[in-house]
Amino acid sequence: MTTQATPSDPGLLLDAQLCFRLYRSERAVLATYRELLSDLGVTYPQYLVLLVLWETDGATVSHLGSRLALESGTLSPLLRRMETAGLVVRERSGDDERVVHVRLTGTGRALQTRAHGVPHDLARRGGLDTAETLELARLLDRLCSNLGAPEPTVDTAIDAAFGSPQNPHPASARTPGAPTDGDRS
């Protein structure tokens, strides 16, 4: 039988650790993504690569690594698996053979249409309203920045997807059935 002792330092309680909340949240988000992405046949890291390529088809491997904060030792096998699955092709630059471009195949490009609902499904399942989503994104960006992680390349992307103070509910970004500001149903 275990006994519960009161620690001499309440800051050392597990539930007092911000890192533990972030860890639990990450696990919950990744489990939800695993379910949402299963129909697409891609993993979460592959989905992230696709998101960058849907923005910038033909991006270099170094650009992908920078945007995704991934080392080449992690990114290279990931791209190899995606190439084997027929989602991307890697091509060396004609100008500099050290530079490798990653291009979507027709299959990889077609997944964009099928993935359209994934962010909105995650938002709906998360149950945060628009203002909470925007605030969480900004707080996480600030936390990462304060801890030395690079800033997001496009810091206004969350505003465009979920609204901004000037345009709180863009019609194209509304999630059917998701709560909106002030609506907790």
Q: Work out the oligomeric state of the chains in this entry.
A: single chain
Rg over alpha carbons: 20 Å
Bin the strand percentage. Answer: 5-15%
**What is the number of helices?**
8
Largest sheet: 3 strands, antiparallel
Q: How many DSSP E strands?
A: 3
Structure description:
The protein contains eight helices and three strands, in the order ααβααββαααα. A hairpin with a 7-residue loop joins β2 (88-92) and β3 (100-104). The protein is mainly alpha-helical and 185 residues long. α1 crosses α6. It has helices spanning 18-37, 44-55, 61-68, 72-84, 106-115, 118-126, 130-146, 157-162; strands spanning 59-60, 88-92, 100-104. The model is unreliable at 169-185 (pLDDT under 50).
Give descriptors for this structure.
disordered C terminus; single chain; mainly alpha; 8 helices; 3 strands
Summed up:
This protein is mostly helical. 51% of the residues lie in helices and 6% in strands. The protein has helices at residues 18-37, 44-55, 61-68, 72-84, 106-115, 118-126, 130-146, 157-162; strands at residues 59-60, 88-92, 100-104.
Itemize the secondary structure elements and their pairings:
Layout: H1 18-37, H2 44-55, E1 59-60, H3 61-68, H4 72-84, E2 88-92, E3 100-104, H5 106-115, H6 118-126, H7 130-146, H8 157-162
Antiparallel strand pairs: 1-3, 2-3
Helix pairs in contact: 1-6
